[in-house]
């Protein structure tokens, strides 16, 4: 009889610690979402690009506060890990980056992100993807981290490439957006891939 394969990441490894805070390029930081970020989250759901590519639904500030509270619970239950990309000091939330769809036993998860208009084009998200990916692969111990986006979203493709996520292929008609079915690029990093240098700006 063969022995069972041990889990890649044992249950409880993620939730035993508080969700970390990371420095980010330009004096920004990656931190857990707070109730005070509800207005920024509600604003994000009204942004046409975020709606197009991420499909968050329309949220009121009260809805946003409830969602942020649920994200804290999802960390505790090891279902997802979501950070706000925030401005310097106690600055406002400018974007979201997270790791979701965890298969801790199998060692994989999916990365997701968006930015509000004020932070676009600054290189902030590529740096954030790099930092969160290091946490997921090196600190948490996942083996594989994937990232998908519509082929009609070249900005997301550039972020993936800058963060060292290799393009593995195109998934045909893989996700339904408001304007119909979109082909999706599949990018991935595996543990042991070389890390690009983080941004210093």
Structure description:
- With 201 residues, the chain is α+β, with helices and mostly antiparallel strands.
- The chain has a domain at 22-146: Gcn5-related N-acetyltransferase (GNAT) (Aminopeptidase, 3-Layer(aba) Sandwich), CATH 3.40.630.
- The protein has five helices and eight strands, in the order E-E-H-H-H-E-E-E-H-E-H-E-E.
- The protein has an eight-stranded mixed sheet with strand order 1-2-3-4-5-6-8-7, with helices on both faces.
- Helix 4 (124-140) links the parallel strand 5 and strand 6.
- Helix 1 crosses helix 3 (61-76) and helix 4 packs across helix 5 (154-162).
- The longest helix has 17 residues, at 124-140.
Helix content class: 25-40%
- The rounded Rg comes to 17 Å
Choose one word for the global shape: globular
Strand order, main sheet: write it out.
1-2-3-4-5-6-8-7
What CATH architecture of the domain at 22-146 do you see? 3-Layer(aba) Sandwich
Oligomer: single chain
Q: Note the beta-strand portion.
A: 25-35%
Main pleated-sheet profile: 8 strands, mixed
In round numbers, the mean pLDDT is 93
Output the CATH class name of the domain at 22-146: Alpha Beta
Helix-strand topology string: EEHHHEEEHEHEE
Instruction: Quote the CATH topology of the domain at 22-146.
Output: Aminopeptidase
